[in-house]
Amino acid sequence: MLKVAPPIAALIAMMPILVFERNLYAWNIATRRMEGESEWFPGAPSDWIRNFGISKADLACIEDIFDEDQSGQPFYLPFIPLFPSGTLSNALPREQKRCQVGAYTFNVMYETDTWRKLKLPGAYTMDDLHHNILLSYDFEDNHLYSFFMDNKKWSNNCIASPNDDLGHADASKVHIDRNGFVKGQQFLYVFDYGAEWTFRVTVEEIDEQDTNDFTPQLVDEKGPSPKQYFDEDWDEDDEDDEEDRDEW
To answer: Between the CA of residue 95 and those of 3, 42, 120, 200, what are the distances in Å?
Structure first.
C-alpha cells in the first residue's frame, strides 16, 4: 500500500511555526498597514501580541520571539526541516529594502498639464510630504488627508492625517524612506474629504546622498494652481480691498 503523509500531519507541524517563528500577523504587510502600524516590513517587531488578550504566562513564553527583528530573514527558513532535503532550496525570499537613505523626488500631478516636482529627504515623514504638496499648490492646510498606497481611493491601505480616528497609519510617524518606495511607484494623495482634491504621486528618483543639511525643494512645476475655494461673490472691488489689506 502506498504510504502518503496525511495533510493534517503537515498542518499540525506548521502551526507552531505560523504562530511563533513566522507569525502570520507579523509577516502580513497589508494587515499591519490596516491596523495603523508605521512599521510594515515583514517580520519586524510588533506590539500586536501584547494586545491580543493572552495570559501573562503565555505572553512571557513568546514575548522574546515577537521582539525579535526577523525582517532580514527569508520567510521559508523555519519550514526547511519539514520538507525533503532541497525542496525549498530554490524558494526566493522577498526582496526588500528596509530603509533606503537619500533624497526622494516626487511628481505630484493634479492634471496632465498641472504638476509639481518635489524633492525631500527620506528621513522626513509623509506628513512633511503632505505639507510640502499643499505649499507647492498654494493650498491652506485646514483639512484631513490620506495617502492611498495601493493607488485606490478610499482603500484601507493608506497613511492618514495624524488626527485620523479610523486607526490608519499616522503620517507623522511614517518616514518616507521606510515605505520601501521604488522608482516609478505611484500612489494617491487625497486632501479635504469633502472637496476630494486628488493628486497622483509618482516616485521619480531616489538619490542615495547625504541629506543631513538637505531641506525640501520645489524642483520644477507646470501649470497654475487650482483655486482651493470658489467664491461666487468675488469681484474686482474685493480684489482691490484685499490688496489694500496686504499693503496695510
So the answer is: 38, 11, 25, 26
How would you write the pLDDT of the chain (248 residues) with one tens digit per residue? 444 445 677 778 888 888 777 877 777 766 676 666 666 566 666 665 555 556 666 666 666 666 676 766 777 788 888 877 766 666 555 555 456 889 999 999 999 999 999 999 999 999 999 999 999 999 999 999 999 999 999 998 899 999 888 878 899 989 999 888 999 999 999 999 999 999 999 999 999 888 888 899 999 999 999 999 976 454 555 444 444 324 43
| CA atoms of 94 and 85, how far apart (whole Å) | 21
Estimate to the nearest angstrom the gap between the alpha carbon of 184 and the chain centroid: 15
Burial of 15 (0-12, 13-18, 19+ CB in 10 A): exposed
CATH homologous superfamily of 103-222 equals MM3350-like (3.10.290.30)
pTM given for the model: 0.65
d(CA 185, CA 219): 19
Q: List the domain boundaries for the chain.
A: 7-82, 103-222
d(CA 67, CA 55): 17
